[in-house]
Description:
This protein is an all-alpha fold.
Amino acid sequence: YGYCENCGVKIDKERLEEVPYVRYCVDCQEKIELEEKVAKLEKEEMTLSSVPPAYDESTQDIIEGEDEGETEVEARIGKGVTEESEEEEGEEVAEDEEEVEEEEIQTSDIEEEEGISESLRKKIEQEVEEELTQIEGKKEEEEYYQEEEEEKIEGKRRGRKKRETALKEEKAKKKRKTGKKKEKGDKKEKTEKKSDSKKKRK
């Protein structure tokens, strides 16, 4: 869509806006319409020539006289017609050359646009790749710091548990020592009571 089906040239934006589904550029459209008109005229001429005219002898003489007059006129102006034809052919050649040059310019413009588009696409891909690399690097850095932080927290927890365990063991030892002292004190007290009771009996 947007390119001529005949010559492949990009169709003007204004033409596409006027006729959204146009298939040919302006030059090709004119050529096709001209070819269709010529073909139609040739067909009509062939149809007319296939029907023989009904003329009598007098009419035939008039026609022959007209033909002779036309032949003389054609002979006189033949030279001028030839010159005009040559001029027309020269103009057509010049127009064809201009069209070829215009098509070449349009083709070079399209190739240049495609080249710019390709370089722009590569630049965008490179920028996206760099951004992704930076994102990955930041992500890895964050993960590293997160792991390091988790290790610190885990180390603190272990240290706290060790301290708590040590405190519990120390308390248990104190309790055991206190219990032993109490037992010794109770035994000593019992011994003293027994000795006192023996003295009283005496």
